[in-house]
Amino acid sequence: MTKQIFFAGGCFWGTEHLFSLVEGVMSTEAGYANSLTPDPSYEMVCSGSTGAAETVRVEYDDTEVGLTDLLSIYFRSIDPTSVNRQGNDRGTQYRTGIYYTFQADVPVIEAFVAAVQRRYSEPLAVEVKPLENFYPAELYHQQYLYKNPAGYCHINPELFAEVRNRKARRTDKAELRSRLTPLQWEVTQNGATERPFVNEYDHEFRRGIYVDITDGTPLFVSSSKYNSGCGWPAFTRPIEPSLISEHTDTSFGRVRTEVRSASSGSHLGHVFPDGPAEEGGMRYCINSAALRFIPAGDMEREGYGSYLPIID
């Protein structure tokens, strides 16, 4: 099904370029959202009189890329606590916001935003509102960074490279099952839990990175891993809050918070509020079978070299 979502993330040049690189995104368009003035010009928007936000319309095929995937990328491209500012750009037109046209998207967006908020002590400055209107920007703004590769952009170029090179999420279940062990399959696809204390990474404390076993997305690093005594790998936090999604789990007569990989949707484990207080108080209790550990010495060769500075 073809869907659309609208992201305001500061200057729309970079935001449009970023989402145009995502596999499953069919088209992007820079424009002005929720304007008090019909069909405003760029100059009018910059004056602050229209109340419009520089915004990008993202049209996507939800059988190829999910809303959670797009939200994950969006939050990695912005400072979600910055008010009316991203990078060097200041003004109400550079505020951050997620504007929806499908009411069914609201629970997904609100849950994702709530998960991100838990990682910050200050409130997020990201609007979540229905789209009131959207006016396409002038032609010279469209696909600006394709036409001007050296043009200004507040988004880290490494994120562009990562999204450009990211392998498509595997939707062929037969292929996925053929390369996972039976335990990995049951844990990631059916929400099973492996045995405590005898799993692969419970006692793994070497320097390195832990990635999603199904699609290779980086999730956790050794610097956030600690010995909780619970019998499973425990982390104080993911690399980025947007890399995971959280869901209410009422199985077995208990209410818990399930953790899934935002990129693949795979079940990872659960998160509990009993972690080290000095590290934020959270314990991400993750199944070894949902992860692949890459030692520090192999990270460069396997394409994760940019994460080396944060593993200590």
What does this protein look like?
The chain folds into 2 domains: 2-165, Peptide Methionine Sulfoxide Reductase, Chain A (2-Layer Sandwich); 173-310, Beta Complex (Metal Binding Protein, Guanine Nucleotide Exchange Factor, Chain A), CATH 2.170.150.20. Helix content is 22%, strand content 27%. The protein has 9 helices and 17 strands. The protein has helices at residues 12-20, 42-47, 67-76, 106-117, 144-147, 157-165, 173-179, 182-190, 296-299, and strands spanning 2-9, 25-33, 53-61, 85-86, 89-90, 96-100, 126-130, 134-136, 208-212, 218-221, 225-226, 234-235, 244-249, 256-261, 267-272, 283-286, 291-295. Strands 7-6-1-3-2-8 form a 6-stranded mixed sheet, with helices on one face. Strands 11-12-16-15-14-13 form a 6-stranded antiparallel sheet. Strands 10-9-17 form a 3-stranded antiparallel sheet. A hairpin with a 2-residue loop joins strand 4 and strand 5 (89-90). Helix 3 packs parallel to helix 4 (106-117). The model has no long low-confidence stretch (mean pLDDT 91).
Structure, briefly:
The chain has nine helices and 17 strands. The protein is of the alpha+beta class and 312 residues long. The mean pLDDT is 91.
Provide mean pLDDT, rounded: 91
How would you sum up the major sheet?
6 strands, mixed
Low-confidence stretches: none
CATH class assignment of the largest domain:
Alpha Beta
At CATH level 3, the topology of the largest domain is Peptide Methionine Sulfoxide Reductase, Chain A
- Rg from alpha-carbon coordinates: 20 Å
